[in-house]
Design brief:
InterPro entries: HotDog_dom_sf, MaoC-like_dom, MCH/BMMD. A hairpin with a 4-residue loop joins strand 6 and strand 7. The two termini are 17 Å apart. The protein is an alpha+beta fold. The mean pLDDT is 92. 23% of the residues lie in helices and 30% in strands.
Length: 155
């Protein structure tokens, strides 16, 4: 288990605690790579001419790509690295605005609650995440509960 100065433990996370991730700019290559990796080549993501005539006026990123970027940005903080055991789910996730090449995004993460797990071997931490574009629009949001290790003993 590797921890950093940024690592937090379940018993340290109070409801209302907020974190802001680093930013990341999405580029055409990200969208193309995700389309290839996921086998989802829907024209709304991969055909500039078709997408230009559609609802969004240009190609957009895959919704699940936005979720993946959000998870990566949360990881980059280091807050849960070394203390997390398992992602427990993605709940009530909503796609509320499109993501496009050129959008710079970050995540605002709020701790909703933390409790001992039913096995008392760790902490269940309920977190609300918002993936926010550079123009302030929330593109995606939802809850991402996490099972965390207990604080290591210092004995």
């Amino acid at each position: 288990m590797t921890t950093t100065d940024a690592t937090r433990w379940g018993d340290e996370l109070e409801p209302g605690t907020r974190f802001t991730t680093p930013r990341r700019t999405l580029i055409d290559a990200d969208i193309a790579w995700f389309a290839g990796w996921s086998w989802d080549a829907n024209p709304v993501h991969t055909d500039a001419v078709d997408a230009a005539a559609g609802q969004f006026g240009a190609p957009i990123a895959h919704g699940v790509m936005g979720l993946s970027v959000a998870m990566g940005l949360i990881s980059r903080m280091g807050t849960f690295e070394g203390s997390s055991v398992a992602l427990l789910g993605v709940e009530e996730w909503r796609f509320t605005a499109p993501l496009r090449s050129g959008d710079t995004v970050h995540v605002e993460l709020e701790i909703l609650g933390a409790r001992l797990s039913s096995s008392s071997e760790g902490w269940v931490v309920d977190r609300k995440a918002e993936l926010i574009r550079h123009d302030g629009v929330v593109a995606q949001s939802g809850r991402i509960p996490l099972l965390m290790r207990p604080r290591p003993s210092t004995v």
